[in-house]
Amino acid sequence: MEMLCANVAPLPSYTYLVPTSLHIFPCRSHHRLKSNSVSLPKSQTHSKNISSLPLLTTSNCNHKQQDNCHTTESTSCSDPRYRHSLFAIDGNSITNQNPKAQNQEKEVEKEDKRHTRIKKPKGLFTNMWWVDLKAALGQRINVEGIVSSVAMLVKEQHLALPHLKVRDIRYIDWAELHRRGFKGVVFDKDNTITVPYTLTLWDPLGSSIEQCKSVFGNDLAVFSNSAGLYEYDHDGSKARALEKAIGIKVVRHRVKKPAGTAEEIEKHFGCKSSELIMVGDRPFTDVVYGNRNGFLTILTEPLSLAEEPFIVRQVRELEVSLTSYWLRRGLKPIRHSLLTDAEQCVKDLPP
């Protein structure tokens, strides 16, 4: 039967500061104890207050081993020198061993608080409402369009003149265009096939869209400065809703018309832009973009002006005035290789 030998040595009721990472070397039975068995690194910056902490040393021994425990002088686990040397520490030496430690700790805490304050506003600017607000402003202020239009007004006025002008897409003869060698049709969205800021097809155009699908099959697409534009339709939800409503693929792109290239459109159709038709309602955006990239351009009249912002309506009036003036002055649209006379692709509506 074993007996538990315990030696208890209470310390005086003083307050001792002990570092949290205090290294205590265990008692070894075959080595003489050297000085204090406490290691206090100079870089330690944290401490704890310990009051009246007793030290309890225990050892398991039988009756025969008990005599050895009492007769061993230098290696005994109950040696009072060992017990007292463990916590015989000057409190002032701990707190004052590194004068810069406390200041360093305060600096770390201040740095953490400063980073916390900086991180808080981060979520504010990543919220969807901020992206939606930016997109709404971008819908009304087309910086790329302004820059491109200025260049066009200076030396490329003919780019704003369409190959064909009709009231709406019901007047377009899709079969004749296909017979002339065109392989696909690209539609603008707002005021071309939908009322502005809606995601459904304008009902009177349903029959013309079906005729276009019967001629060109799936080689149709929507290329708009609203649905499908990453700046405005950041998550693609508007593009998906429009695709579901009209059954036509919406091409995603990053640059607003009239700026940018036809790379995304050509990749979608698998052919050159010169074999495609661009249909839109804005001379300075849809027509300029189409002519600059080699499309056959068809200009339609707006479906509804009531939903358009005031600034957009004013810009539209300016566009119409300038294009009419240039036509009266004898300016001609650029020639297209597949169609020299676009008027042959206009049809009359049945009574």
UniProtKB/TrEMBL annotation:
It comes from the Eukaryota. This is Uncharacterized protein. It comes from Manihot esculenta.
